[in-house]
Amino acid sequence: MSSYNPVLIRVNTDSGLSGIGEVGLAYGAGAKAGVGIIRDLAPLIVGEDPLNIEKIWEFFFRKTFWGMGGRERFLCRNERY
User: Fold this and answer.
1) What is d(CA 65, CA 71) in angstroms, rounded to the nearest whole number?
2) How far out from the chain centre does Cα 74 lie?
3) pLDDT tens, residue by residue, 38-60
4) Domains, the chain, ranges and CATH?
5) Burial (Cβ within 10 Å: 0-12, 13-18, ≥19) of residue 27
6) Three-state SS at 12
7) Which has more pLDDT, 78 or 61?
8) Rounded to 5 degrees, what are φ and ψ at 20?
9) Under a CB-based contact definition with an 8 Å cutoff, are residues 48 and 17 in contact?
10) 78, 14 contact by CB (below 8 A)
């Protein structure tokens, strides 16, 4: 059985909203991959309205490799900043 290594992410906005979510890749080597995914994707939404979740979802779906599978794991935990 793989070890469980949860990766938590804290999202802070310039308007003072914040929240904590979990990256869905937490088993075995997946935890390290989850950290890399967050580092790569987070800068793509800096400056976006955190309350416009639909726009952010659409962006990741259309513009990233992860949009066709992994973006759900990235965003579903962070829908509520």
Assistant:
1) 9
2) 3
3) 888 889 888 999 889 899 888 88
4) 7-76 (3.30.390.10)
5) middle
6) strand
7) 61
8) -125, 135
9) no
10) no
Q: Which two tokens stand for residue 37?
A: 């995914």
Contact 75, 56 (CB under 8 A): yes
Q: What is the Cα–Cα distance from 39 to 66, expressed in whole angstroms?
A: 13
Residue 28 token pair: 């075995």
- Amino acid code (one letter) for 10: R
pTM: 0.60
* Rounded (10°) CA dihedral 54, 56, 59, 61: -70
Encode 16-60 in three state secondary structure.
CCEEEEEECCCECCHHHHHHHHHHHHHHHHCCCCCCCHHHHHHHH
Q: Which residue has the tokens 């309205």?
A: 49
Report the 10 Å Cβ neighbour count for 31.
17
Rounded Cα distance between 72 and 13, Å, is 20
